[in-house]
Design a protein that fits this description.
Length: 430
């Protein structure tokens, strides 16, 4: 049995990893109970150097005990979990994720209320009634007028080499469907979607790119056709007393009406997500999340909270939902559970309302949250008591975060800025 120098009190530990380049012998080691992350990391690096597999520079490691990150000394962990000091403690180790690096700040003329990145481009919605289109490097491509009130929600529909389509929803109670010709850099408004009687605060496109849903302060959820043309499209004339919206070519924009309306929330709908092609989840100011069967047009179940919900994000990787709330907590929900504890974990660190949350697109454990406390935080579900990193820089409340691109974390705020953080993924860390 191997031994490591230390104090009188020792524990027996075994190390294992899912990253084969860092493998060490799996026999038990005797280590001081006072060991923390640094000492354990030094031990692994020493073993790797002895085996001739260590790098030129030491690697920083994180350690997991029964699926949760170790954030104390081994001695404190034993006390907190009431484990026996006689048993062999199994520690999984993995290369520590580097801190996200601030890349850029993108200036707006008013509050940045919504964000969505896709491919090499970023969309942002602003309280100056415009949408802005950026490259992922932070260069402005277009400023797009069209709404008569603040833009509250934005979502890409589809992109290809020739053109891209996206949605913008506004406090002016309309949703506009846009097409960007990437060859000519021309922007055209294809349809105006009308039917809500309040601010449109959230949008989500389904996986087929043929439909989208919207949530509004009028308490309603509506399903719409997202494609161009098709039998499910309905076009109406504007009423005579209303100002007819003109496209850039001078023609009136056709009006599209919803395919379906879902009602049941008692307050405004703050966030909405597709869980599958037939199921959506909505979160509301009425302290509830609701699951809906879109095919049947009925409410399936209700997940009750304690405060106003401001945002949700769904991960198809783990089929879990995270929610941001006015009580300053992020919660992890399993919507598949019908009996027992639907809330799997609560993450507490923010000091203000949590306005926005977003899962990593490639790692089932990682997500970000943005808050009125001006900070964006990176979380790992295996570290429930503390965030991995705090990302600062905003001088006013954060209103939107987005992690649609694996290497870019975005936050937009009431300081009229988007902050871009570059994130380097560690191979095999998921």
């Amino acid at each position: 049995m191997a031994s490591v120098e230390g104090t009188v009190s020792h524990l027996q530990v075994k190390f294992f990893t899912k990253q084969p380049q860092f493998s060490v012998p799996d026999n038990p080691f005797s280590v001081p109970s006072s060991c923390g992350l640094k000492e354990l990391s030094d031990l692994i690096n020493g073993l790797l150097q002895s085996a001739g597999t260590g790098g030129l520079h030491p690697t920083e490691f994180d350690f997991l005990v029964e699926g949760q990150f170790l954030r104390t000394t081994l001695e404190k962990h034993i006390e907190q979990t009431e484990r026996s000091t006689e048993e062999v403690l199994e520690l999984e180790y993995l290369e520590r994720q580097p801190a996200p690096a601030p890349q850029d700040s993108l200036q707006h003329d008013d509050w940045v209320s919504c964000l969505h990145a896709q491919g090499e481009h970023i969309l942002s919605g602003c309280y100056d009634n415009t949408v802005k289109l950026w490259t992922s490097r932070g260069d402005i491509i277009l400023t797009i007028p069209g709404h008569s009130a603040p833009v509250k929600s934005i979502s890409w529909i589809a992109q290809d080499e020739a053109s891209s389509t996206f949605l913008s929803g506004s406090h002016d109670q309309t949703i506009l469907i846009w097409e960007w010709n990437r060859t000519t850099n021309a922007m055209e408004c294809l349809y105006m979607c009308k039917g809500h009687a309040g601010s449109i605060d959230c949008l989500a496109v389904d996986e087929t790119k043929s439909r989208f849903c919207s949530g509004s302060f009028d308490r309603m959820i509506k399903i719409w056709a997202a494609g161009k043309g098709g039998s499910d499209e309905m076009v109406e004339e504007d009423e005579g007393h209303q100002k007819k919206k003109k496209r850039t070519d001078g023609q009136k924009v056709p009006t599209r009406v919803p395919l379906m309306t879902l009602s049941g929330h008692k307050e405004g709908v703050a966030a909405i997500q597709w869980l599958s092609s037939s199921e959506i989840c909505s979160a509301s100011w009425d302290h509830t999340m609701k699951l809906w069967d879109v095919q049947q047009g009925v409410e399936k179940s209700v997940l009750a909270g304690t405060k106003v919900f401001l945002d949700i994000s769904y991960s198809p990787l783990n089929r879990m939902i995270i929610s941001g709330s006015a009580d300053r907590h992020v919660r992890l929900w399993d919507p598949r559970i019908r009996d027992g504890a639907v809330v799997k974990c609560t993450y507490t660190s923010h000091t203000g309302w949590i306005s926005s949350v977003s899962w990593s697109p490639i790692n089932e454990h990682l997500f970000i949250s943005g808050s009125y406390d001006t900070v964006m935080k990176l979380w790992d579900t295996r570290s429930p008591k503390t965030p991995m990193y705090n990302m600062t820089g905003h001088e006013d409340k954060i209103m939107a975060v987005d992690w649609s691109l694996p290497d870019l974390m975005l936050s937009g705020g009431a300081d009229n800025e988007i902050k871009i953080f570059r994130y380097s993924t560690v191979p095999g860390s998921s």
